[in-house]
Amino acid sequence: MFWERQIEKMPRKELEKLQLARLKKTLRRAAKSPFYGQWFKRMKWAPERLKKIEDLRALPFTLKEDLRKEFPYGFLTLPLEKIVRVHSSSGTTGRATAIFHTVHDLEAWANLVARCMYMVGVRKTDVFQNMVGYGLFTGGLGFQYGAERLGALTIPSGSGNSKRQIALMKDFGTTVIHIIPSYALHLIKVFEEMGVDPRKDTKLRIALIGAEPHSEATRQRIEEMYGVEAYNSYGLSEMNGPGVAFECPEKEGMHVWEDDFLVEIIDPQTGEVLPDGAEGELVFTTLNREAMPLIRYRSKDLAAIFPEPCRCGRTHRRISRIKGRSDDMFILKGVNIFPLQIDTVLMGIPEVGTNYVTILERENYEDRMIVRVEVRPEFFRGDLRQLNELQRRITEALRSELLVTPKVELVEPDSLPKSEGKAVRVIDRREM
Amino acid sequence: MAHQISVFVENKPGRLERVTEILAKAEVNIRAFTVSGTYEYGVMKFLVDQPDRALEALRSHGISAHKREIIAALMEDRPGGLYRIARIFGQRRINIEDAYGFVIEDKKQAVLVIDVEKIGEAKKVLEEERVAMLKDEEIYAL
User: For residue A288, what pLDDT is reported?
Assistant: First the structure.
């Protein structure tokens, strides 16, 4: 079950020694980039001052804004002739950012993704369909190279084109898919339309799901509908993309590959480092990247570290399911709400369909939250009373979780806009 | 046995149009229908000549439809026709969830469509009281 037994089961002491050695190297390398060169000079802090891992806490954080300001080349430690790949964020929420890779970086990344896939049982004999976007988005190419490294036949189907995806699965006998969870839920309807039952008419056995926060209830739905084992995948483009943390077969948290990433949890308000077990923002330092090392990069993703040893035998610490991005949190009537909380409640109610959307509005200086929910056709029993009861039940379940009362609207199946990439689950129409 | 098709729809323009268009294309004839609902959504109920065909056509268009057994009781189209049946249910403490009626032949016969929870019991008392009930085929033949 181990891709690299020696590394995955490395005793903590040894692993920390490896981390320290790699961290020193990373700092020295980072100092060659225009950004970090200035940074160290300004702080009058030389990389040689780092004696133990905790000394890193003396350094400030690297922020997304820094990446934007230095776009495109301010973080490079090597001349362009050594660089072979760039991935760039879409820039939908601000200016674009770019992450660069050398040949070594790409190989190390592919190895991490292969390690994740092997861990959950993907083998050379599998047929792997990579159903996410290729191109500048890291999910497509990241898994492509990882799966090829592992040796599985890889179908670069990309995102969208649902009917073709299903045809490919049947034609090639796909056994493993990589898919965004909200798209997996949507695709089930297309299966139904085509009269194909993924449990009986395909050879699917494993789904790798990631790229957006999702609840345990969503995972269970996907497992049940597709007849697969589904594993949570975590990554961020600033740390290559996929392959940062991944669930093992125990499905109790995701192992962070600590040989390649140093992970810290901080209080997002104060920046203070929190002990294991506490929930806060994930902060990463690359330990094995040449072109563009990043030091104490704030991910904005909220999670907790589980320090306890895992039954699977891997020593790399686990993180919890991502609760959301600190950016995703919204405040309604003074209450902090994460979209994932809504997902957990809705996906736990069997009558609720696969798509829903939350709309925030402001009317007469008062905020309100509307949750539009598709109703699963097979649960409809033909009377209004049942619908009214369902509406009340959803409202009450949301109220008890969120502590504010939403307005729940039941809508027809397949009537909400569907997404083939990351789903838009919250639309904020309030004008600030 | 008689059946009715219920459809879940959002309350917005064009919904009845869409549903009836599907039924028209499937060549299903509607004998009677009702719409009930709240401000946001509602349920349309159709008494049709071919319930299975209607159900299949609606579902294949992704519409939430359900087939459910109802009672189609024949009553006389004259004063006291509805009262007679209502009294039977009232005396036996059977609650009517939903009901609607339509006339087949002016001044002669009308049909009362009744949706009750305890359908078995309701049918039994109507039989005892010799109230005629229509089957799907008989509705088709109307």
Answer: 98
